[in-house]
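User: Okay, second chain of the day. Same drill as before: sequence in, C-alpha cells out.
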Amino acid sequence: MVLKQDYYLVPGHGEDDAIESSRMDVLIANARGIFGVAAHRTVQEFSKFYAFGSGGDVALGAMYAMYDDPKRSAEDIARAAIVGAAEFDDSTGVPVTSHAVKLRRG
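Assistant: Same drill. C-alpha cells below.
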C-alpha cells in the first residue's frame, strides 16, 4: 500500500495489488546463479538453465538436449535454444545477437 500511496504505482491486475507490474520478465545470470524476476517482481532461482516467453518450452528442450555435452559452450547452448524456439514459434525471432562474458575465477 505504501508503494501505491507514496510512489504512485498503480497495479496492473487489480486494485488490491501492492505494486504495479513491471511488464517485463528478466533473467539474471551471474557467478552466484541464474535468477528470474517476473513482472510482479517475484524472484525464482534456477539450477541449470531457464527460458521464458512463447518459445520457452522449445528452448528448454534444446538446452536440456545439449547441456551435458562438454564440447558446447554456454553461448552455443543458448544460441541453439533461441534458434530452435524461432523454428517452432512465430513470436520468437532471429538473428541472435549474443555476448559472452568470461567469469573471473577466484
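The mean pLDDT is 83.

User: Thanks, on to the next one.
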